[in-house]
Specification:
It contains seven helices and three strands. It is mainly alpha-helical and 194 residues long. The chain has one domain: Fido-like domain (Fic-like fold, Orthogonal Bundle). Strands 1-2-3 form a three-stranded mixed sheet, with no helix packed on it. Helix 3 (92-102) runs antiparallel to helix 4, helix 4 crosses helix 7 (184-193) and helix 6 (168-177) crosses helix 7. The longest helix is centred in the first third of the chain and has 22 residues, at 23-44. It is globular and about 50 Å long.
Length: 194
Amino acid sequence: MDKYTANPDEGELLPNLLNLSSREDIDKSEFEGFLFAELTLTEELSSRTKFSSKYIQRIHKLAFGHLYSFAGKYRTVNMSKGGFLFPTAQFISQNMVDFDIDILSKLPNKYNDKNSLIKDIATVHGELLFIHPFREGNGRTARMLANLMVRKQGYQGLHFELIDDKVFPQYVSAVQMVASKDYKPMERIIELII
């Protein structure tokens, strides 16, 4: 791994502000950070909450700010997972601006039907996972944002635990289909877990 390329499959321990040196301690600290972020943002959630790239950075900063200096900042390394190359780091800022303008800014405050909500969650979730804007915690950040989107509409949350070993390959494929702006596979996943 060099300074401009990272593969999370390598299982490396990222340098952290708490000088934790075991995978178990880092996992625990990350879990606690995401729990804190989810509780904080759920408590603050209102019908006027606007989801934006800045909001997504805030999720990441709340979750990881105690642990990583890169919390809330877009990644500066190229990343791949399972042979799939995520968008190049040098374009992440522009990708997120486009995501803001083309998708996030158009989300309504209130949905009149569940199908429209499912479509928007699928689009937002898929795009965020595809862009993969952060060095670490992209999946957890995307899941938290999806949960906040449904909670804003009065639902309890999504049941991501239903994405088991049988469904997971479909989930990964759905993220990859976002590259061609095909959100139907992700819509089927969201419909399953709402």
